[in-house]
């Protein structure tokens, strides 16, 4: 408990220091910018929040501001400029209103499709029952006795409807994984087919049975049984079209992330473009490493440095010796281009050296912290049950010993925006609870994992945009290229058809493997 109190005092010192530094920084900025405010040149009242170079992916502004406060343990800075912290710009108002309209439209479309499917399903299940009950209600005295045959048909209808109900629930009434831009063609065709089928049955029932008040009750019950049988066959057709048709791989798609070029290959069956895009996104969150824009800043800064590295001074006045200056600039640019690969080589080598050094320090610090945990566990076993420390307190006790090494390593590898202090403490307490080793604890930080491994608010995109030259409801074809866009990057998908493979058989005669070993009659013995 004393170690936990020391930890809390340490973090309070960190927060006090960061708050003091931010306050001094803000006062200095206000002092330098006061002349501009007197001139009245700053008329726009908006808040600009500048996050670290690798800002959280695809989050809203409020969540980004809160995440910046949570990342103070890593000594990241957030600079806030503007005349009022409560003002908002016209662009923000337009974006918020657009998001609200889109969300309302998507919800209405989703619930409308679900409502139509539910009403049609209820009509399908009530129709056979109505076919059997209406003659009993309207002209019961005129019906011919049916006896045992009708009772057997009643049992058959009941069990078939139960099977149809279970199959319909398993196939259609599932929670949707995404909201697609267009309707699913096969599902819409099945709904239309079921509606026309039930409507034709009702039309025939009304004309031939209700109007004439048919007295052959056994024929009426068999008519209802035929309807249930036909509905079961339509359900089998739905299973083939919606589930089995897409299982056989027919296409290979290459998915490339536009920013860093990371790519994956997937095999798909007969799918529409929008459903193929949904499969690609599901696999993206599982297979691709999390998008880290901070890793791209080094190459951009290096290119900017090379572009702005040359300066030419004209000492003879304007218009003189222009050809000589151009030749000098071309020669200097060529020499700088020839030496740029050396700068890149030594820069990457120095970065790898620093990463290995800080990784070694982190591994040693974590191993020492877990060794301390084992000593604490041995001491806690000798105490009373009421004085034992829970995993959360144990994690808070050993975290300061590894915090600095972990902070430096995450900074060097530019991962600090994806790991807050709270998330690290939760992961540490989880490892302590399940008696995991230091290597298991470090696996999340030493090896960048898939996107789903990190906090959902830091990577999840609520909306993707599908860009395709072909209609999104059309099927995949060889050579089709479509793009999935989100806020910070895009996924370029190239479709290739799996080639037709022709196998031939070659027969080998078993007798061709036989041979005869002939030994000489005379030996050296």
Automatic annotation (TrEMBL):
User: Which residue stretches does the UniProt record annotate as biased composition, category Basic and acidic residues?
Assistant: 36-45
Q: Does the keyword Cell membrane apply?
A: yes
Q: Where in the cell is it found?
A: Cell membrane
Listed transmembrane segments: 111-133, 153-172, 184-204, 224-244
Q: Which intervals of the chain are annotated as region Disordered?
A: 1-86
Gene Ontology CC: one annotated term: plasma membrane
Q: Does the keyword section mention Cell membrane?
A: yes
Q: Which InterPro entries match?
A: VANGL
Q: Which UniProt keywords apply?
A: Cell membrane, Membrane, Transmembrane, Transmembrane helix
Q: From which residue to which does the signal peptide run?
A: none
The primary location reported for this protein is: membrane
Lipid bilayer topology: Multi-pass membrane protein
Compositionally biased spans, kind Basic residues: 19-35
Return the Polar residues bias intervals.
74-86
- What family does the Swiss-Prot or TrEMBL record give for this protein? Belongs to the Vang family.
Q: What is this protein called?
A: VANG1 protein
Organism of this sequence: Agelaius phoeniceus
Its lineage opens with: Eukaryota, Metazoa, Chordata, Craniata, Vertebrata
